[in-house]
Amino acid sequence: MKKIGVVGTQETLALLARALAYFESDYKIEHSVLIDEGCKDTERIYEMITAPDIEFLVIASDQGDYFLYESLIKKEAEAKKREVEIRFLHPYLKYIHHFHLFDCEKLFLRREDYANSIDYLEFHVTDNCNLNCKGCAHFSNLVSGRKHTDFLSWEKDMLRLKELVENIYTIRIMGGEPFLNPELGNFAAKTREIFPQSMIHVVSNGMLLQKADRGVFRAIRENDVTVDISYYPEVDRDKVVEILEAENLRYRISTVSTDEFLKYMNLKGDSDIGRAYADCDFKSCHFLYEGKVSACAFPLLVKYFNEYFDENVEVCCGIDLYSPRLKKGMLRDLLNRPVDACRYCAVEKEPIPWEGHRLNADKSDWCVSQK
Ligand code: SF4
Ligand code: SF4
Q: Taking CB atoms and a 6 Å cutoff, what residues make up the pocket around ligand 2?
């Protein structure tokens, strides 16, 4: 057994322990330091650094703060004049929790791989959706006319991204409803070609699978793409599973349907940016759209809200991928910080019951009540 030390939260430690057991790994967690309340236990870190038979230390926090803990460990090691090897827990494991989708060889990343990569990116192949849920976080029910992504412009953006990052650990192909775009298979294949190491998923409500072209399924299967089904009350779960199984596709679908969304917009734009960002579930859902990337989809898609309601939610629209100032290795840091648009996101979200086919949208479907 190879012994490792782990600096992580209770949750990530438990996750890693389960993963090691699942993979029947040679690694064993011998020492651990909990960082749920911030990392103050330097005594325990010192113990790990000086333990004689530790292969390496793993940083496994559940936020994008690996470098913070790395510098703390290094400082401690320097003070004690010890050499220490540090690895980072692969971000995909934290995101996916489905061990069967994961290659255990990739569990522990070296610094240089991690620093030049980003954890997650999603993009649309269409802004349209067949389900048009009330309060759709990507504003798909407010989109008028056909708005499919232009393949060549998107490909150019992906190639530019490849110049800027070594890897994107998780890529999700989304919409709207991706199966509305007949070119979905080409998007899947090109994503795999440009980012061969990524875990790629296509996110669908599953309702169009029955009518989908076999060629699209083939491209998904051959390019090692997982289908994530967003299970809404209207979705015939058994039918969807039957199709996915028959097509021999890798998939994820929950057992319970989503019956609630959260309203999250504060139209006054006066939210405390730090608090809104800290409490935000979307802050790691980095988004690519028309030559720009952003921490989340909101700043790049809120234009649909503005157009539909004749509003003026004015936000800086993402990072220009083609800015000459942007260099390889900069995106991780730039994407993991609050953005101007956070002031339009409420700190206290409000639940709304899920409802499909809502074309007569109302601002209150997104905006929390002003107190
Ligand atoms: S299924 Fe609903 S939430 Fe998902 S993209 Fe379509 S409208 Fe939005
Ligand atoms: S704008 Fe900020 S708070 Fe709002 S969804 Fe994006 S990251 Fe979250």
A: 276-277, 280, 282-283, 295-296, 298, 339, 341-342, 345
Q: Is the pTM of this model over 0.90?
A: yes
Whether residues 20 and 42 fall in one domain: yes
Residue 92 is part of a domain; what is its CATH number?
3.40.50
In a domain, 358, yes or no: yes
* 127 CB near ligand 1 (under 6 Å): no
Question: Can you point out the beta strands (E) in the chain?
Answer: 2-8, 27-34, 54-60, 86-89, 108-109, 118-124, 168-174, 199-204, 225-229, 251-253, 260-265, 287-289, 292-294, 319-320, 345-353
Residue 371 lies in a domain: no
124 lines ligand 1 (CB under 6 A): no
Q: Is residue 370 part of a domain?
A: no
Of 112, 132, 154, the one marking the end of a domain is 112
Long-range CB pairs of 331-334, under 8 A, 24+ apart, other chains included: 331/118, 331/164, 331/165, 331/293, 332/64, 332/115, 332/116, 332/117, 332/118, 332/119, 332/165
Q: How many domains does the chain have?
A: 2
Domain membership of residue 241 (yes or no) is: yes
From first to last of its 371 residues, what are the pLDDT tens digits of the chain?
A: 899 999 998 999 999 999 999 999 999 999 888 887 666 666 777 778 888 888 999 999 877 778 888 988 888 888 878 888 999 999 888 777 678 878 888 899 999 899 999 999 999 999 999 999 999 999 999 999 999 999 999 999 999 999 999 999 999 999 999 999 999 999 999 999 999 999 999 999 999 999 999 999 999 999 999 999 999 999 999 999 999 999 999 999 999 999 999 999 999 999 999 999 999 999 999 999 999 999 999 999 999 999 999 999 988 789 999 999 999 989 999 999 999 999 999 999 999 999 999 889 999 999 998 65
Q: Whole domain around residue 93: which residue ranges?
A: 2-112
